[in-house]
Amino acid sequence: MQYYLFVHFKEKLTPDGEQVYFGLSKDGYNWESVNEGRPVLYSVLGERGVRDFTIVRAKNGKFYILATDLCLAYEMTRTYHESWCLIKREGSHNLMLWESDDLCHFKPQREITVGHENGGCCWAPDVIYDEENDDYILHWSSPRMHMDCKEYIDGMKMCIWYSRTKDFKTFTEAKILYEKEDSGIIDSCMIKENGRFYLFVKSEKHPCGVILLQSDKITGPFSRMNQFDEEMAKLAGGAGNYEAPCIYKLDKGGYVLNLDFFGLPGKGQGYVPFVADTMASGVFRRSDKDFSYPYGFKHGTILPISEEEYERIKTFDYDNEQYRK
Q: What is the pTM of this model?
């Protein structure tokens, strides 16, 4: 039987929302909180706030959590003057990383620099294993600066970048994974099915919403799956109110896509589930009634875990400061 771990954050105006939260599930449908709904890890480096998590179980047996180094509660007014444009341009070039052997005890937080010289803030990381090269592709959203195109009057366009690593200590020079010709894109998420790679991204225009692409190569080129757009067009309030795609495969078959709804303030936000029989179909049906969450999970990643890992995480005392030593 497969169990699941959901690493995420909360949408709050206070700094404790932008920290590392865990959720657990025995079936991939019904979720429960961990540590009584409190953070299991706190960021103490950079902006001291983290968002947009990914988690990977590496071949070396270790777990790695990576996150955006961004704290809106502290810095949106003080540093960025309520400007997302300023965040894109002047935000952190680093991602935050935690390493663990058991998902309970973590080594000290690390900063990893993946940004490029002509880029800005690095956010929303995701990781996928590349069997062909026996390494991991870390991909994230960053702007490409100094655009000549008149459409980008702020001088930048959001793209998906990537770097390779074998050990999560050294990373290759950043390269473009996917650039959408007619708009910026953010929030990449990739999964493999039957030798093909499927890449979700949030498009800023044409359309404004999450889109799905496919390729027979892990680094592309990628082509659009238009059948996905038809279901997204049905979303109440507009597809532009959803972002942060998070995809996972169910043990019994089929896939669940979570899209983060941000169209309401505060507790009205959080992930909304969609299901599909196969990735190749590109057809995901909204399925709220089949899922339950203890609160609005925000931008994260789901990792399959064992029953033993589930029980260890569920019963561990994350408030005990000894676990960080």
A: 0.95
Which amino acid would we find at residue 250? L
Q: Which two tokens stand for residue 43?
A: 């960021």
Cα dihedral value 267, 271, 273, 279, nearest 10: 170
With bands split at pLDDT 50, 70 and 90, how would you rate the model's confidence at 201?
very high
The rounded distance, in Å, linking the Cα atoms of 271 and 248 is 13
- Stretch (H or E) spanning 213: strand 209-215
Q: Report the C-alpha gap between 172 and 57 in whole angstroms.
A: 20
Q: What are the E-state strand segments in 62-155?
A: 63-69, 94-100, 110-113, 123-130, 135-145
Contacting residues for 125 by C-beta, under 8 A, at least 6 apart: 52, 54, 66, 67, 68, 95, 138, 139, 140
pLDDT at site 325? 47
For residue range 84-116, list pLDDT tens digits in order: 888 988 899 999 999 999 999 999 999 999 987
Question: Rounded to whole angstroms, how far apart are CA atoms 230 and 181?
Answer: 21
Spatial distance between the Cα atoms of 208 and 187, rounded to a whole number of angstroms: 13
The answer to whether the beta carbons of residues 241 and 263 sit under 8 Å apart is yes
Q: Which of residues 129 and 12 earns the better pLDDT score? A: 129
Partners of residue 306 on adjacent β-strands:
none
Q: How many helices (H) does the chain have, and how many strands (E)?
A: 4, 20
**What backbone torsions phi and psi does residue 183 show, to the nearest 5 degrees?**
-170, 165
The residues pairing with 110 across neighbouring beta strands, listed in sequence order, are 97
Question: Do the Cβ atoms of 272 and 242 come closer than 8 Å?
Answer: yes
Q: Tell me phi and psi for residue 68, to 5 degrees.
A: -70, 135
CA distance 245 to 153: 27
How many Cβ atoms from other residues are within 10 Å of residue 152's Cβ? 17
